[in-house]
Amino acid sequence: MELKPDFEQAAARVEAFWAHDCIGRPALQVLARRAGREPPPDDADLLTRKTDVEHVVRRAEVGFQAVHYLAEAVPVYIPGLVCSDMAAFLSEDITIMEDTVWYHPQIEDWGSFSWRFDPDNRWWRMTKEMAQRAAQRAQGRYLVGLPDFQVAIDIVSLLRSPERLCLDLIENPVAVQRATRFIMDVYATCYREIRSILGPPDTWVGDWMGLFAPGDHDIVQCDFCALISPRHFAEFCLPDIRQQCQMLERSIFHLDGPDAVKHLDALLEIPELDAIQWVPGAGKPPALGWLPLLRRVQAARKSLYVTSPPEDVGALVEALAPQGLMISVEGTFPSKEEGEQFIRRVERLCAGRC
């Protein structure tokens, strides 16, 4: 791969991560600056920067050229708005902002609302065009990933509002379950179409987390779970999470913040789920401050993905099993040499443990 010359070695380590194993050390994602290759400012207007297919793909490629992708870090282009895109596929009424997308609630009355997926939806067509353009240009240079689908009840919460949906779990449970089933069906359709655009079944495909795999894989999410009890999670969320995992050959759950931890044991019992990503949340201690939780994940023989500042990585590596561990190192090293020295230090800490 042009922008990742050691891709085969990195791919072997990522495969070991998925298999709850390791090769010499845990998997790492490490970035380093490429001297003199900083991308110039993007002076285009907001909609061009977010929705113009040619502009978006070419700017991503310019950004890839500015970085050394070390260890298991790889350049991955993600098509779409990269912000709960399934909600956009079911709605034209959205507001695109610099760092996010605002979805305006459209489900006012369950009795009169009708779910419909329009294959000509503007944002779905844009996402497919981005995937097609990138897949044509990426061959041998970088990977193309899956959109940020973020399916099932999270999408219902965006189109209804989280507050009203919490009440619906009690007052309109049948309507909520009907909605999540519809979204899961649409997800299956959209996933298959995007996946076919990206290449045959053995094509390596990335995601917004920077992970990658051949075959079918995706990030499984349920941010709404932070607002509800384990009983409601088991009733309204867990069946869809397991169904999504069953559709995929490789899956990782994005566990977002302390309010979601109450559902961890239920997630760990899903046999088809391969890995957990732990995100402590803004203002909370970094990964090193959550060792009991991280050990729970490893004890259940699920692979574990965390993000950490570089100064904590050594302690993390010493405290956790290297098998099935991926550490995404925060920030960008000033040079390739410094990034490679960091990787060698991690390898020395793991000598004889993998």
Task: Please render the helix and strand layout as text.
Blueprint: H1 7-18, E1 27-33, H2 46-51, H3 53-64, E2 67-71, E3 76-77, H4 85-89, E4 94-96, E5 101-103, H5 122-138, E6 143-144, H6 153-160, H7 162-171, H8 173-198, E7 204-206, E8 212-214, E9 217-221, H9 230-236, H10 238-247, E10 250-256, H11 264-268, E11 275-279, H12 291-299, E12 303-308, H13 310-319, E13 325-329, H14 336-349
Task: List the keywords.
two-stranded parallel sheet; seven-stranded mixed sheet; 354 residues; globular; 16% strand; 13 strands; single chain; alpha/beta; TIM Barrel; 14 helices
Concise summary:
The chain has helices spanning 7-18, 46-51, 53-64, 85-89, 122-138, 153-160, 162-171, 173-198, 230-236, 238-247, 264-268, 291-299, 310-319, 336-349, and strands at residues 27-33, 67-71, 76-77, 94-96, 101-103, 143-144, 204-206, 212-214, 217-221, 250-256, 275-279, 303-308, 325-329.
Radius of gyration: 20 Å
Ranges where pLDDT stays below 50 over 5 or more residues in a row are none
Q: Give the total of domains.
A: 1
Q: Return the average pLDDT rounded to an integer.
A: 96
Going by CATH, the architecture would be Alpha-Beta Barrel
* Main beta-sheet strand count, sense and barrel state: 7 strands, mixed
Net shape: globular
Give me the strand/helix succession. Answer: HEHHEEHEEHEHHHEEEHHEHEHEHEH
CATH fold group? TIM Barrel
Number of strands: 13
Strand pairing plus helix content: what structural class? alpha/beta
The strands making up the biggest β-sheet line up spatially as 2-1-13-12-11-10-9
Residue share in helix: 40-55%
User: What is the CATH level 1 assignment?
Assistant: Alpha Beta
The number of helical segments is 14
